[in-house]
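To the wet lab folks,

You asked to see what we're planning to order before we commit. Fair enough. Below is the target structure as tokens, and below that is the sequence we designed to fit it. If anything looks off to you, flag it before the synthesis order goes out.
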């Protein structure tokens, strides 16, 4: 029972992180009024969040390997709470943008720190399922921002709503300090002073492990499509290009969350029972994403509603599918550098998402705005990312299998020698 209590407490911190990540998205109109900003300027908040989140992954991983999960989760929660407190009381747009960057920084360390707890507290067979449950249950933060936070914002105003979210973060800090331990025996990683050269050498070593790069390309190929759809271009595409009402577009995003939850449980069970088939599962998810988008983009006009629902369901599987990348990192990296490896894996999907969001924006602007034709052209950029990811998976999978074969041969020789 104790492992589940520790995990649930760490999970609460991740739920708060997702809540902090999504509060500005649901309060866009109130933010535009409060800060006097137009839609294009407000979109800077989203891009900045992704830039900070992706850019902080490797430093966060290095810190995680050095100080352990508990310290990083507490620090991340404290940083996010301070950013939300600043947002609660400021009316300055530059200050708000800076506060949002601070929130993104705290968010960047939380997820991989919670994931780091899992292999220490659960048996290897349970790790894939609990990893999936971490990603799935964390999305409750999005529900909290869409329902109680938005209701509080409407009823009591900006300052009260954002102060309440920050206070929730402070509560999670107290619970983490009381409950969470890095390992069952409470041992923390030894803190060692390393030079910049040694740090860079460690980063290079972790990256050169084929399992780390296999996780990176897995995360890249599976996650970016649904991330770009949910964070920026999905609702404009559904309303402007496909002619759906805002309410219908919101319903499709709700379906997306439900599909991800269902798929996550199935993927966690499958990867736990069939670890040697993980890469085939990932390639299948990428292929299904490409096929679903091809079916929609090949339509000469607006797609029928059933096809759009199918598209949303299929791409939503990419979210839990990306979690397999962390399982690759765990399999092919020692515990001492697992945080760094997980940070590198986590960069894959977010870097691809950032590049696609920006590139799509440029194409939409050059093609004349949010029209059916311009969106169809912009979404085709996904095929480039899928191609890069698939080639990367195939190459690194072959190298990872060779490494495993060499390790098995070495173990056999040692057993014979003994």
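Sequence we intend to order:
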């Amino acid at each position: 029972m104790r492992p589940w209590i520790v995990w649930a407490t760490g999970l609460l911190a991740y739920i708060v992180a997702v809540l902090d990540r999504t509060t500005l998205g649901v309060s866009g109109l109130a933010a535009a009024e409060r800060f006097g900003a137009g839609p294009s300027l407000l979109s800077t908040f989203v891009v900045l969040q992704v830039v900070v989140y992706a850019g902080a992954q490797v430093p966060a991983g290095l810190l995680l390997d050095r100080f352990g999960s508990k310290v990083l989760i507490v620090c991340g929660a404290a940083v996010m709470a301070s950013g939300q407190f600043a947002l609660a009381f400021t009316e300055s747009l530059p200050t708000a943008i800076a506060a949002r960057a601070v929130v993104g920084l705290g968010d960047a360390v939380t997820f991989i720190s919670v994931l780091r707890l899992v292999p220490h507290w659960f048996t290897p067979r349970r790790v894939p399922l609990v990893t999936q449950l971490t990603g799935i249950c964390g999305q409750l933060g999005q529900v909290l921002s869409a329902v109680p936070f938005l209701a509080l914002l409407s009823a009591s105003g900006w300052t009260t709503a954002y102060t309440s979210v920050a206070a929730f973060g402070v509560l999670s800090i107290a619970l983490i300090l009381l409950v969470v331990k890095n390992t069952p025996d409470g041992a923390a990683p030894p803190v060692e002073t390393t030079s910049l050269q040694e740090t860079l050498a460690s980063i290079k070593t972790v990256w050169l492990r084929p399992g780390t790069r296999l996780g990176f390309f897995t995360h890249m190929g599976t996650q970016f499509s649904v991330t770009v759809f949910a964070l920026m271009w999905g609702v404009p595409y559904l309303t402007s290009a496909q002619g759906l009402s805002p309410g219908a577009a919101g319903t499709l995003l709700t379906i997306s969350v439900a599909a991800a939850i269902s798929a996550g449980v199935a993927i966690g069970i499958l990867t736990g029972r069939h670890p040697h088939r993980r890469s085939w599962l990932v390639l299948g998810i990428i292929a299904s994403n490409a096929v679903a988008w091809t079916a929609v983009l090949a339509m000469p006009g607006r797609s029928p509603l059933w096809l759009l629902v199918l598209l949303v369901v299929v791409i939503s599987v990419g979210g839990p599918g990306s979690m397999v990348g962390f399982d690759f990192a765990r399999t092919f990296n020692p515990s001492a550098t697992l945080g760094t490896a997980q940070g590198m894996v986590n960069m894959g999907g977010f870097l691809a998402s950032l590049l696609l969001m920006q590139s799509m924006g440029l194409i939409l602007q050059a093609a004349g705005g949010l029209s059916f034709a311009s969106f169809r052209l912009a979404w085709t950029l996904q095929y480039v990312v899928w191609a890069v990811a698939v080639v990367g998976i195939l190459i690194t999978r072959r190298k990872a299998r060779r490494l495993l074969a060499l390790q098995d041969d070495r173990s056999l020789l040692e057993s014979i020698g003994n």
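Structural context that might help your review: The radius of gyration is 21 Å. Residues 197-418 form a domain with the Growth Hormone; Chain: A; fold (CATH 1.20.1250.20).

Thanks,
Computational group
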